[in-house]
Design brief:
Distance between the termini: 64 Å
Radius of gyration: 23 Å
Bound molecules: ligand LLP
Number of helices: 12
Number of strands: 22
Number of domains: 2
Shape: globular
CATH class of the largest domain: Alpha Beta
Length: 427
């Protein structure tokens, strides 16, 4: 039997004429769970994590998985078991980590709008660090911690004003972005933090954007961060850790991001040269750990050839896979069982009542109604951004490990969707 790997997708391969993820035939999963269906490879996640671990060999690092990329309990459990911490952005994220058996002291809490209630609960749980994003937040956090007779461990998120050269919606480290403390106010904000009785300064943090495919913005941001560390420590405020955020891109199509180990070897050369190589380091990768570990399986409902466009209508839609509609993002779409026929050009769309409900434009596919397709690179920011638009239930999720496939989330039913609603017909 011929085995043909998909470029950039080491855990996906055609064996004969059937697409496999690790050792599981994807069409078998559709028979059991239906479509749309998300399927993730555990081995792919651990391989992505191993690339970071290789890059940091011999260093002190805490890898905090940015769980906004994919917060499924089953996914969190894979990373928790591998020793990761977690970057959370809400009290709900924290509940998920704790429910999955993750350790509170390895949690860092990012986000520009933490509420007092979220702060209180995170302090009670004993999280490792609050990544504070503004002076106003700092004051409130100090107040909350003092009211509990505690001191909150804090790192300030710096906005280094570096262009990550990615989609504007996912670039976060430029002047004019809502994120982080402006570069030229960082020192005075640290000086203020040092005077607040409810604050214990422990680190510094930045995150410049997402789907970054170039090393240069990281090197620039690192230089600017290290300049700040020197200035803050010269002012008598020691920092225990330096957190470089996440943001490393993946290959969706013809992107060429550096490998995680290559990126970190280059950054560590810089850190060594400036005397920071043996510091406690932290990173917050999301997409690069899970993005290419996942596929979304879908069935072709109808073919609708037209005068200007041919439409291939799937049972998956923008509520399952919002990235094309939101960022004009490209996801490869491939058949589970390729047909021996001449491909035609199709716009691959979902059933939702919006012209923006597309998954791929102008794709060459040999398809018929009833065929099964896989949307690739669907492990990050797909299920986590899924919605119930058009009363569509969210898809189930399966985690594959070798020959084993385990359901980690059931398909959402209409009863699930309506559970929170109160009918006017019942008194
Ligand atoms: N740390 C912070 C503070 C973040 O805001 C983010 C992502 C990360 C870490 C993880 O970044 P990653 O390694 O995953 O690039 N929905 C968009 C991406 C939004 C990213 C938001 N922040 C997308 O689908 O492309």
């Amino acid at each position: 039997m011929t085995v043909q790997n998909l470029p950039g997708q080491p855990h996906l391969a055609y064996r004969g004429n059937e697409l496999f993820l690790e050792d599981v035939r994807l069409s078998d999963l559709v028979k059991t769970h239906g479509t749309p269906l998300f399927v993730y490879s555990k081995e792919s996640m651990l391989a992505a994590l191993a690339a970071y671990q290789r890059g940091f060999a011999g260093r002190q690092v805490q890898i905090c998985y940015a769980m906004k990329a994919n917060p499924a309990l089953g996914v969190i459990q894979v990373f928790a078991a591998a020793g990761c911490g977690f970057d959370i952005v809400s009290g709900g994220d924290m509940d998920r980590v704790l429910a999955a058996g993750g350790q509170a002291h390895k949690i860092i809490f990012s986000g520009v709008g933490k509420t007092r209630a979220e702060m209180r609960r995170a302090l009670e749980a004993g999280i490792g660090c609050f990544n504070v994003e503004s002076e106003a937040e700092l004051e409130v956090l100090s107040e909350v911690a003092l009211s509990m007779a505690m001191r909150a461990p804090v790192s300030l998120r710096v906005n280094p004003n570096v262009d990550p050269k990615t989609h504007p919606y996912i670039s976060t480290g430029l002047k004019g972005s809502k994120f982080g403390v402006a570069h030229d106010r960082v020192l005075q904000t640290y000086q203020r933090a040092a005077t607040l009785a409810g604050i214990n300064v422990v680190g510094i943090d930045c995150h410049i954007g997402s789907q970054i495919t170039d090393i240069a913005p990281y090197l620039d941001a690192a230089d600017r961060m290290l300049d700040l560390v020197e200035a803050i420590e010269a002012a008598g405020i020691p920092l225990q850790h330096i957190d470089f955020g996440g943001g490393l891109g993946i290959n969706y199509n013809d992107d060429t991001p550096p490998a995680a180990d290559e990126l970190w070897q280059k950054l560590l050369i810089k850190l060594d040269a400036r005397g920071f190589g043996q510091r406690q380091l932290m990173i917050e990768p999301g997409r690069s750990l899970v993005g290419n570990a996942g596929v979304c399986l879908s069935q072709v409902l109808y073919l609708k050839p037209g005068e200007q466009k041919n439409f291939c209508i799937l049972d998956a839609a923008m509520n399952d896979l919002p990235r094309p509609a939101m960022y004009q993002a490209f996801h490869q779409i491939v058949p589970l069982t390729p047909r021996d026929a001449t491909p035609q050009t199709w716009d691959v769309v979902g059933p939702i009542c919006e012209s923006g409900d597309w998954l791929g434009h102008d794709r060459a596919l040999a398809v018929q109604a009833g065929d099964l397709l896989a949307v690739l690179s669907a492990g990050a920011y797909c299920m986590s951004m899924a919605s119930n638009y058009n009363s569509r239930g969210r898809a189930p999720e399966v985690l594959v490990d070798g020959t084993q496939a385990r359901l980690i989330r059931q398909r959402e039913t209409m009863a699930d969707q309506m559970r929170q609603e109160l009918s006017l017909l019942t008194p």
